[in-house]
Amino acid sequence: MLQKLLPITGCLIFISCKHILATGGCQSNTNQVQICAPVSSLSALPGDSGDFFSQLNGRAGVRGKAGPKGEKGIRGPPGPRTENENECNCNEELERLRNEIRQFTALVNVNEYNCSEELESLRNEIRQVNADGCPSVIFNFSRLNQITDYVRYRHYVPQLNSATICMWVHTSDFTDSSLFSYATRSGHANEILIILRNSRRISFFLENKRVKDFTFSSMMNQWAHLCVWFSTRTSQLGVYINGNNLGSFPYTGGYVRGGGSLILGQDQDQFDAGDLQASQAFSGQISSPIIWPRVLTASEISDVTHRCICPRDYAITMTLDKVELHGTAGYRME
Ligand SMILES: [Ca+2]
């Protein structure tokens, strides 16, 4: 005989059983016959009582007994759903959940966007709170063509993966005048070198390489504010003159090594203020040299330049208590 089992995706499996157990289950030693067809068409198979298939197709619940006269009868519970109905309801439920997830995801994105703005706003506020008047002292280099006048930083210079170096400069001498020279023990005499070439051009050296020359309006006989920056993270460097951005440029070098010797007013050709040349001496004034271990924003550069507001997270300030004055190099406080 054929024993009917549950339909599987539009197919019905019939098992021919030799023995029917008291529980209605089948023993082993059975042969399976699989018939694939739309469920509705299977209900018309020969020999079927129709009762089983009517359940598959969904049968209305048994209507309850009629109530007292004048009252409506109570409808019985609904019959079992067909697989097609379940599939239909699942799809609706799935689509509803998908829509909920889409809305949630959109909400999360909006929140993330707002968080980014809020975070940046708070960072700016913190920078403002941390900002202060820029440490200030004016170093004076009065003599041309000499090898004895320079200002040396006495403390340890850390490794710099990114940096912004700012200072005020006033000069009338633009013949290879070295403003800022940082040499390392490893033989990199020009680990950082900022040198004026003439009244409209500076050269910027990093890791012993001349990485970029910048030209600008003449700074002859007037105070000019200079900021150079580099970043190994973005592989970019750039210069600001008087708060004006001269642009950013590709930079393929690595970080600046720590532990070197840093001087103002001369160009080291060896570590520890070695092998200075008279032709590269700076003559004029340098004020408020500061190094930050990061790239300052254009807004921060503007604050430093025009409002004398300096973020406090600098790595180096060359104030009087941190430097040695050599030769006739002098200073005055503003
Ligand atoms: Ca030199």
UniProtKB/TrEMBL annotation:
Q: Which residues are the signal sequence here?
A: 1-22
Name of encoding gene = LOC100181393
Family matches, as SUPFAM superfamilies:
Concanavalin A-like lectins/glucanases (SSF49899)
SMART domains for the chain: PTX
- One Pfam family recorded for the sequence: Pentaxin
Q: What Gene3D superfamilies does the database record attribute to this sequence?
A: 2.60.120.200, 6-Phosphogluconate Dehydrogenase, domain 3
Recorded GO MF terms: metal ion binding
- This chain's source organism reads Ciona intestinalis (Transparent sea squirt)
Which keywords does UniProt give here?
Answer: Calcium, Disulfide bond, Glycoprotein, Metal-binding, Signal
Q: What is the name attached to this protein's record?
A: Neuronal pentraxin-2
Known cofactor(s):
Ca(2+)
Ranked from the top, the taxonomy reads: Eukaryota, Metazoa, Chordata, Tunicata, Ascidiacea
* Residue ranges of the region described as Disordered: 60-86
| Every Pentraxin (PTX) domain range | 135-334
